[in-house]
Amino acid sequence: MSERIVVVIPIRSLRTGKMRLAPVLGPDARASLLRAAAARVVDAAVASGLAEAILVVSPDAEVLSWAAARGAGVVPLAQPAHYPGLNGAIEAGREWALARGADAILSLFGDLPLLAAGDLAALAAHPEAVVLGADRRGEGTNALLLRLAGRGGKFCFAFGEGSLARHLAEAHRLGLDAAVHEAAGTGFDLDTPSDWGDYLDLADAPELGALAGRLLAYEAGWR
């Protein structure tokens, strides 16, 4: 019997953010990048066929409207004020999933431009209670599959700098088996100018090249 998995995608804004990319991308280009990357993550979750529901959790009305327009199976969830920040958004998603009897949640960042459906299947294939999709530097957690049975409901999220080690420590504290999953789709995020440069080097695939070319054209028009 297949697991009932709820995918949780926290998105603070589709218009602002990624300020560390400001040296290489202007505000309109960053907004376009946020939308394109978030759409890819949602589409990968849909295409994987793993998700009973895909929650887009946000305090922003524009993001919630965008999510509502993504089609059946994508659920906009307004982030409660008593669950602030990134960790709060994922906590709100877990609460929603638990209330509906889900077996697991799979949290995904919205800035994974290489993510594909197969990456999610590979994560879910791990049998451990906690499966951490490491960033490519082996420091952060870009994806987290948490099985909710037993003590999974008490797992404390610790997203932020150095989160991979903190999540492993939390799994150990609760006595939960944990695995670290490394793959390009879950490992590559877009936070820094260096990430953007590496992304351009990878952007020979048609869909990636189209996005990179569009953003670079915006930049050329501003100069």
Largest sheet: 7 strands, mixed
CATH class: Alpha Beta
CATH architecture: Alpha-Beta Complex
- Report the mean per-residue pLDDT as an integer: 89
Structural class: alpha/beta
Q: How many helices does DSSP assign?
A: 8
CATH topology: Spore Coat Polysaccharide Biosynthesis Protein SpsA, Chain A
Distance between the termini: 57 Å
Indicate the overall shape. Answer: globular
What is the total domain count? 1
Strand residues, percent:
15-25%
Unreliable stretches (pLDDT < 50, length at least 5) are 205-209, 214-223
What's the number of extended β-strand segments?
7
Helix content: 40-55%
Rg from alpha-carbon coordinates? 17 Å
Considering the protein shown, what is the CATH homologous superfamily? Spore Coat Polysaccharide Biosynthesis Protein SpsA, Chain A
Helices and strands, in N-to-C order? EHEHEHEHEEHEHHH
Strand order in the sheet with the most strands: 3-2-1-4-6-5-7
